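lol ok so funny story. i was supposed to be doing the assay writeup but got distracted and ended up predicting the structure for this chain instead. priorities right. anyway since i did it might as well share w the group, maybe its usefull for someone
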Amino acid sequence: QVQLVESGGGLVQAGGSLRLSCAASGRTFTINRMGWYRQAPGKLRELVAYITSDGSTNYADSGQGRFTISRDNAKNTVYLQMNSLKPEDTAVYYCAAQETGSSRYSYWGQGTQVTVSS
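and the output, tada:
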């Protein structure tokens, strides 16, 4: 069992930055991939970025060059640094964890709201 808690969301102006955090607890040693997803009103949930236990990363085109995902295994925490934010980045951001050997994300956080004003 893994529990995920996101934090760091808020209201920023376009061009600003935010750093999201996701703290994992429980059986964290089973986690391989951790990802950030987002969902805007009326939109489907979409991948923002993910990172594996060995540090490999992947980014969606929407955040490429602006977002950076990182992981601190000692703190059981994953981060999403978001720079040059745009109004279209406005969404609820969710942290997710995929266990080793699993084909899907098994655990999700409660979400944190990010609002970018123009």
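The two ends are 40 Å apart (CA to CA). The chain has a mean pLDDT of 95.
back to the writeup now i swear
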